[in-house]
Specification:
Helix content: 25-40%
Distance between the termini: 34 Å
Oligomer: single chain
Strand content: 15-25%
Number of strands: 14
Number of helices: 14
Shape: elongated
CATH topology of the largest domain: D-Maltodextrin-Binding Protein, domain 2
CATH architecture of the largest domain: 3-Layer(aba) Sandwich
Largest sheet: 9 strands, mixed
Length: about 425
């Protein structure tokens, strides 16, 4: 599964941190300058938070030191090996950046085939790790002995739409939604864009009479899990009829489907009168003209998603957190209580095995060391790329649990040393 190399993994440099062109696509007009301003503010906030949590340390060198960080049981960085992940499209832009920026020789290949594919791939042990935005249930965990759950990113899911006939009043540029109205629009209870319930949330907006075309995800989707969890929390009708699930309810017959966050954004952006849901990164970077909806939070404020409001939501909620070997299915960061918190926020997870020699018969100690080192790098140094790509870094509480999980990893009965880069610079 892996080919040893001699160059150790590296830390980010200012030049290597620039998101690849496939992740950052051009947007037109004032939206570009607004996004730039938001990112600058967010980077300042997140860098300050990251310094306090020790996500990264800076030095005059942009390359990683081969010495290991404080508390490490390793004496040097592991030899670089190739490894593969598969799963979530929500986190794919961040994974792509990590694949570009991690190491000088370690080759990470990530296939954004969807969360359900990530779960299947790690269950079948055909990848080194799976990535999923929906956590495994207790039943699923019991069916995959030895698997562990490692929260590694935080994303916002946003409603998107393309309705050419909408006319906004002066000073308004996007629509307001709440959970109840979104639930009715997606299940076909509300059929037209000029419905009074939607009009009441958007005074002064002129809506066409056009029929709403909801767009949902195909297959098992972590983005669908986060979105249907929000609808379940905000709509008693949705909760009783459908509930939360990574698979779109088969009893809903209206609308159409699309594959992946990118496919959903493209479908909505090119099909008139559509309504969909995607991760914030895909909405902001859509090559098409999609509207991004404001969503009402528990304080009754309509919030347009941003990294600042996602970070705020993450830190305004303190759910009971399980260990890496327990289910995270009921951990929720939805509907945080802060006045400016964005309400549709979810975690994305790395899934792999703690006993790596038993899980992967082809593994050497170098393979095991490199996988553990990458995961540790991703949840520490790698978090410095979150805000520029419109994700929120994981909290200190999540990081603590992740580190405890990584410390439990073994190879042939022995613990696996974790080597933490001691130098490098954060994204510019």
């Amino acid at each position: 599964m892996s080919t040893p190399a001699s160059t150790p993994p590296g830390t980010p440099s200012a030049s290597s941190a620039t998101p690849p062109p496939t992740i950052q696509r051009k947007r037109r007009g004032m939206g570009v300058w607004i996004a730039v301003a938001v990112v600058i503010v967010v980077i300042v906030i997140v860098v300050g938070l990251g310094v306090g949590l020790g996500w990264f340390k800076t030095s005059s060198s942009s390359k990683a030191s081969t010495a290991c960080g404080p508390g490490s049981t390793a004496t040097s960085a592991p030899g670089a090996t190739d490894f593969k992940g598969e799963g979530s499209t929500l986190v794919a832009p961040l994974m792509d950046q990590w694949a570009t920026s991690y190491g000088n020789g370690a080759q990470l290949t990530y296939d954004p085939a969807g969360s359900s594919s990530g779960v299947t791939a790690i269950t079948d042990k055909v990848v080194d790790f799976g990535a999923s935005d929906y956590p495994l249930t207790t039943t699923q965990l019991n069916a995959i002995p030895g698997v562990v759950t490692i929260p590694e990113s935080v994303g916002a899911v946003v409603p998107i739409y393309y309705v050419p006939g909408i006319v906004y009043p002066t000073g308004v540029s996007s629509l307001n939604f709440n959970g109840s109205v979104l639930a009715q629009m997606f299940d076909g209870t509300i059929t037209n864009w000029n419905n009074p319930a939607l009009q009441a949330l958007n005074p002064g907006v002129s809506f066409p009479t056009a029929t709403i075309l909801p767009v949902h995800r195909t297959g098992g989707s972590g983005t669908t899990f986060i979105f249907t969890s929000f609808l379940t929390a905000d709509s008693s009708a949705w909760a009783s009829s459908y509930g939360k699930s990574p698979v779109w309810p088969t009893t809903i017959t209206v609308g159409t489907s699309a594959s992946g966050n990118g496919g959903e954004a493209d479908t909505v952006g090119t099909t008139p009168d559509t309504l969909g849901y995607v991760d914030l990164n895909y909405a902001l970077n859509s090559a098409s003209s999609v509207g991004i909806g404001n969503v009402q939070n528990p304080s009754l404020a309509f919030i347009r998603a941003s990294v600042v409001d996602t970070v705020s939501a993450l830190h305004d909620l303190s759910p009971t957190l399980p260990t890496g070997t327990q289910t995270w299915y009921n951990v929720s960061y939805l509907n945080a209580p802060g006045k400016t918190d964005y309400p549709i926020v979810g975690l994305t997870y790395i899934l792999t095995y703690s006993d790596l020699s038993s899980a992967f018969s082809s593994y050497s100690l170098a393979n095991a060391e490199n996988l553990v080192d990458f995961i540790h790098w991703a949840i520490t140094v790698g978090q410095s790329w979150s805000a520029p790509l419109y994700y929120a870094p994981i909290s200190s509480g999540l990081l603590s649990i992740d580190n405890a999980t990584l410390n439990s990893f073994t190879f042939s009965g022995a613990s696996i040393p974790v080597c933490v880069p001691t130098s490098g610079s954060a994204p510019a």
